[in-house]
Amino acid sequence: MPARIILAVSLVFGGAIRVWLALNDDGIYWPDELFQSLEPAHWLVFGYGLIPWEFVDGMRNWAFPGFVASLLKICQIFGIDDPRTYISFIKLVFGAISLACAAGTYMLARAYAAGRTEAATGAALCALLAPLIYFAPRAMSESASALPVVLGFALALSPSAGRARTVAGAALIGLSVLFRLQAGVFAVALIVILLARRKGGRAVEALATLAFFALLFGWLDHLTWANVPGTRFDGWFHSAFTYLQFNLIEGNSANWGTSPWHYYFTTLWSAAPVAMLLIVALSVVAWRPATGLLVTTVVFVALHVAVPHKELRFIVPALPLLCALTAIGLSALPIGRWRTAVVGAVLLVAALSGARFHALTYADVGMYPNRATESAYDDPGPVNRLLLVARDRPGLCGVRVDAVHIAWTGGYAYLHRRVPLFNADQASLESGWISHVIAREGTEVPGVVVASEGEFVLVELPARPCVWPPDFKWRL
Fold first, then answer.
1. Residues with Cβ < 8 Å from 227, sequence gap 6 or more?
2. pLDDT tens-place values along the chain, 476 residues long
3. Which of 3, 109, 137, 192 is least surrounded, with the fewest CB atoms within 10 Å of its CB?
4. What is the rounded distance in angstroms from the CA atom of residue 234 to the CA atom of residue 413?
5. Please, which residues bridge with residue 452 across strands?
6. Is the model's pTM score more than 0.85?
7. CA 118 – CA 425 distance, rounded (Å)
8. d(CA 44, CA 68)
């Protein structure tokens, strides 16, 4: 009974927070949140959008934006054409994926013989940990891959797993690799763990399943990138080759900034200090009963530590595994008051972390050191909501965004009108290419302010004939 209560309360509490964020936060953690998910998905479904260079040069597999596009297509089938609605729907789906990771944490802990109460405690930690709440509604490949990873391990590593569970678990981990290439670490780990357990037959079944998903990855690249200049092997695995060459061999990811080796540890400590202390301590206690899972998680994090460019979102797939290790560590403690006290401490810390989710700053999520004390939420939400307003304006023929770079906006996923969208330096006010400007309050833009929010305004320019820019490209 305590386990059911813990699960129910934590899932309801965590779910309510995620729903609130999905409906109220229009901010952006990093441009990939839109331009490697929602924006290419919008292009697939509606035929237009700003496509980033990765989807021009073939550095990304189309599986993840294809998944987001399927959600948009569902909305289109049901006649939902309002971006306010379909964006909320997509955010709610990703919030549900994040919450389901808590259930996966429970299943994985139970697969390692953790007690029901301890497994429920690990699930509560996953549901209420502030960093996981922060990333929950964001359409990012890391968030999408976290669920199939934890569920895949839970199914395939269960002591009673037969062929069906092993294949299903391996298939889920294969799906996670389709969503995010770095999840390949978990695919390798699954085979190694099964072999270490002397389950050669199950390892062969898992390997065959993962090989199928690898071929699916390559085939999808073949379909989408075969005609890209410089393509090898007729496009097979083009995105993987290009991604690894760009980031690992040439080290170009450092162009987006570098961080010290301790970035992930100090950032998580800032976001949830006591929770991370308990997670680390109890994960160490889980060494004996869950050696393979612990080594897998450590290796995944260590590989990201070795890469100069770091973002907290990169290790999101490892956090549910750490919560499961916490539950396994709890079960490894001696039965009695000591274990009960530690379980209570973890639950209290989880509740407090969830209660302060709204207090996270950019320092807590490891972004923008020059704005470390500012809230990490809803920035620049007002700009995106003004794009929604601009979309409904009569006579709209183009929008220029002066307030921020358009990479930090919702793009056409929010604007949802086939009109040109520009940065401040890409179109003059007299060009006839634009009818509206989103600027900071106090900026001198000739026209009428038709909407405002916070320090941002939507200005409607004096009426003039609309002209489509002759060299406009659907490129970010």
1. 235
2. 699 999 999 999 999 999 999 999 999 999 999 999 999 999 999 999 999 989 988 889 999 999 999 999 999 999 999 999 999 999 999 999 999 999 999 999 999 999 999 999 999 999 999 999 999 999 999 999 999 999 999 999 999 999 999 999 999 999 999 999 999 999 999 999 999 999 999 999 999 999 999 999 999 999 999 887 777 778 899 999 999 888 888 888 888 889 999 999 999 999 999 999 999 999 999 999 999 999 999 999 999 999 999 999 999 999 999 999 999 999 999 998 889 999 999 999 999 999 999 999 999 999 999 999 999 999 999 999 999 999 999 989 999 999 999 999 999 999 999 999 999 999 999 999 999 999 999 888 899 999 999 999 999 999 888 999 998 999 98
3. 192
4. 32
5. 457
6. yes
7. 57
8. 10
∠ CA 206-210-213, rounded to 5° = 150
CB 231 within 8 A of CB 237: no
| Helix-helix angle 141-156:319-332, to 10 degrees | 40
Structure tokens at 53: 């260079």
What token pair was written down for 330?
A: 């709890």
